Amino acid sequence: MLIESRPGSDPELAALVTAQQRELREIDGGLDGQVTVVHDDARYLVGVVDGRAVACGAIQALDIDTAEVKRMYVRPAYRGRGISRQMLVALEELAFQAGHTVLRLETGTYLSAAIGLYRSSGYAQIPVYGEYVGNPYSVCFEKLLPVSV
């Protein structure tokens, strides 16, 4: 798989984010009613297999030290191949290169595969933060990144 940086305006990225949001609405029945948009200030990565964009993820700075993983998604036909783990590692590297020392993320309590990925990748559960406070379906994680010298 090729992982490449893409701008938020990229049409293949937009299609992946739309598919992610559609899938989340189907899973949670639209319980939260929130519409998600592509953030202009996030840094996006897209995973490409055989010329097709099949996965995405982003980091968005929360402050000088902390970034948040956003929009992790792999098309259903490509799951079970380790693509999400490769994307997460690439996002961690992107955050590290940007000087972040902490990486946070939020996922749904009903997304057991995602929770398993994050836990097995060294993320520890933390209290919900920011816009996720008060959402009963949110679970948040955090990982400390190495500090460059």
TrEMBL record:
Annotated SUPFAM superfamilies: Acyl-CoA N-acyltransferases (Nat) (SSF55729)
Record keywords, A-Z: Acyltransferase, Transferase
Gene3D superfamilies in UniProt: 3.40.630.30
Pfam families: Acetyltransf_1
Keyword Acyltransferase attributed: yes
Keyword Transferase: yes
All residue ranges annotated as the N-acetyltransferase domain in the record: 1-146
Name the UniProt record assigns to this protein: GNAT family N-acetyltransferase
Native source organism of the sequence: Micromonospora sonneratiae
